[in-house]
Amino acid sequence: MKVDFPGLLIEPLPSGQTRYRVRPRGDRKKRIRIFCAPGDEDFQRQYLAARAGEQPEPLKVASEYAVPRSIGWLVNAYFEHLEKRVKAKTSSPKTLKKKRNLLNRLLTDPDRVMLIPQEKLIEMKDDMAATPAQADAFIEAVAVMYDWAIKRKHVRSNPARGIEKVYEKGEGATPWRAADVKQFFARHRKGTKAHVAMSVLLWTGCRIEDTIILGRSHECTIDGIQALRWQPLKKGSSEVSVPLLPPLLDATRAPKVQGATYVLGRGGKPYASGDSASAMFKRWCVEAGLPNLSAHGVRKGLGELLAELGCSQYEIMAIHGHSEAKTSEVYTRRVERWKLALKAMKRVNVSHAWF
């Protein structure tokens, strides 16, 4: 069957599979097999080679080059699975990036056996003693990979399960105090990128990763009040609607350069990732003499301030975009969330505790 690409033939096979062949230019009798369909990332390369009369080689993935049933084969097959999930938008690129950073440690000797002895994993974990949180994350990533492999009958057991954690989680990011915010704004005046970033974090309660998308396109009017409505990037988060308070409005309109987002990087463009925005914000904190503080601490500080002002758990959840609480059954719907967020943010606006 002929389609839009000249010379391309799509041939159903008795097995139910589909074969793709191409007639070279000027030779209607010859047929050259290609190994992917229109829309595939390698289709143009193979199609054009066949139209020129050349037999293209199928594009191989890393697991096809690895020693069969080796750890190199398993890790790369797992990466290819995650890449498909990212492409289908059922997993995030950030998750894939983290998995790669952790599991690449297994590829220093890719030809060794697929099922790594538990004592070897413990040895690798001990070598990471200087970064205990990273060591635990590595073991957990390996365990999840082996769980995936067991379901597909690549292995029968999971050597990473049962290895004790070494990192004791602390209280997390240090929350910002009113004095800290004043010190930050004293160093980074209105109109600067740093001032805009702090204002967005402070007056929306968003995560740093949301600053790479938040902008005027998210401004709206709810019940006659200027507001911001957006879907946080973190998977599982609920939509957030908060009032667009005067301090935030003034801060976002102050810079001479305006763009698609409130917070802009080099060249007036949004930051490429939450990690890059976080690193930049950390630099601004250091410049302000606040090296122990971070972007996440702003969100945490806002939560504590809301609690101190008497806001309920649900009001805080409405601003932070949490979909549920451990001690509650069902979270409020969109209309209730907006009313709670409006009430909570009004309390912050009149308190002057952060100025």
Instruction: Please identify which CATH superfamily of the largest domain we are dealing with.
Output: Intergrase catalytic core
The strands making up the biggest β-sheet line up spatially as: 1-2-3
Elements, N to C (H/E): EEEHHHHHHHHEEEHHHHH
What's the pLDDT, averaged over the residues? 85
CATH topology of the largest domain: hpI Integrase, Chain A
Q: What composes the largest sheet? A: 3 strands, antiparallel
What's the β-strand tally? 6
Q: Radius of gyration, rounded?
A: 27 Å
CATH architecture assignment name of the largest domain: Orthogonal Bundle
Q: Which structural class do you get from the secondary structure elements? A: mainly alpha
User: What is the count of distinct domains?
Assistant: 3
CATH class of the largest domain: Mainly Alpha
**Euclidean distance between termini CA atoms:** 71 Å
Low-confidence runs of at least 5 consecutive residues: 326-336
Helix percentage = 40-55%
Broad shape: globular
Strand content is 5-15%
Counted by DSSP, the helix tally is 13
Brief write-up:
With 355 residues, this protein is mostly helical.
Structure, described:
Helix content is about 45%, strand content about 10%. With about 350 residues, the protein is mainly α. It folds into 3 domains: about 10-50, no CATH class; about 65-150, no CATH class; about 180-350, hpI Integrase, Chain A (Orthogonal Bundle). The strands form 2 sheets. A 3-stranded antiparallel beta sheet has the order 1-2-3, with helices on one face. Strands 4-5-6 form a 3-stranded antiparallel beta sheet. Helix 3 packs antiparallel against helix 4, helix 5 (about 120-125) runs antiparallel to helix 6 and helix 11 packs antiparallel against helix 12 (about 315-320). Residues about 325-335 have low confidence and may be disordered.
